[in-house]
Amino acid sequence: MTRPRDPEQIQQEIESTRGQLAGTLDELAERVSPRRLAGQGRDKAVEFLQTPVGMSAVGSATLLLALRMARAARNRRR
Q1: How many Å apart are CA 40 and CA 46, to the nearest integer?
Q2: How many CA atoms lie within 13 A of 43 on its CB side?
Q3: Residue 1: pLDDT over 70
Q4: Domain-embedded: residue 1
Q5: Cα(72)–Cα(5) distance, rounded to whole angstroms?
Q6: Tens digits of per-residue pLDDT, 23-60?
Q7: Measured between alpha carbons, how far is 44 from 27 in angstroms, rounded to an integer?
Q8: 25: helix, strand or coil
Q9: 3-class DSSP state for residue 5?
């Protein structure tokens, strides 16, 4: 047979659990923070753009944009 728990002990357990829950919620809020996620996205983009593949992608996109602008300018003259 189990003996009844002391109300003060129960209160201490509640307070401890409440503190742990608050810490967990704070940690979760930090993990999904829009500012943090945006910073991570920016860092990953910069990291990618510094690779040969990233530089090629930017160069290709720039070339395509320049060709499109030249074509648009040529069509306006007609």
Answers
A1: 10
A2: 6
A3: no
A4: no
A5: 82
A6: 999 999 999 999 999 999 999 999 999 999 999 999 99
A7: 22
A8: helix
A9: coil
Residue 44 lies in a domain: yes
Cβ–Cβ under 8 Å, residues 67 and 61: no
Cα–Cα distance, 48 to 42 (Å, whole number): 10
CA distance 68 to 64: 6
Q: What single letter denotes the amino acid at residue 42?
A: R
| Residue 4 placed within a domain | no
User: How many folded domains does the chain comprise?
Assistant: 1
Report yes or no on whether pTM surpasses 0.90.
Answer: no
Does 24 reside within a domain? Answer: yes
63 in Cβ contact with 57 (< 8 Å): no
pLDDT of amino acid 65 = 96
Query: Which residues make Cβ contacts (< 8 Å) with residue 58, sequence separation at least 6?
Result: 49
Range of the domain at 50: 14-77
